[in-house]
Amino acid sequence: MSKGGWFLYLLQCQDGSYYAGISTDVEARFRAHLAGKGARYTRAHPPLRILASRAYADRSAASRAEYQLKQQPRERKLAWLEHHGD
């Protein structure tokens, strides 16, 4: 599901918030977040699960998509990620 390229992923945190990030291995990055070795945000807001991920051609495309996702209102983030591709 999430190896072999760059991925944009969306996590649901314990407080109901969302966290978006990019990685070449979403499962490994999720484990790092769970272990408190991920982003500062997920250390303060521990993640519960991966809501969605989408593959991108390269890091640059994934970073652009991450920026666009973060501009979306909270209630539209999951739908945006599921319906917007590269």
Tell me how many strands there are. 3
Estimated structural class: alpha+beta
| Order of strands across the main sheet | 2-1-3
Terminal-residue CA separation: 17 Å
Uncertain spans, ≥5 residues at pLDDT below 50? none
Helical segment tally? 4
Mean pLDDT: 91
Proportion of residues in extended strands: 25-35%
CA-atom Rg in angstroms: 12 Å
**For the report, how would you describe the main beta sheet?**
3 strands, antiparallel
Per-chain topology:
Elements: E1 3-13, E2 18-25, H1 26-34, H2 40-44, E3 47-56, H3 59-70, H4 77-83
Antiparallel strand pairs: 1-2, 1-3
Can you offer a commentary on this structure?
This protein has 86 residues and is an alpha+beta fold. The chain has 4 helices and 3 strands; from the N terminus they run ββααβαα. A 3-stranded antiparallel β-sheet has the order 2-1-3, sandwiched between helices. The chain is globular, with a radius of gyration of 12 Å. 27% of the residues are buried.
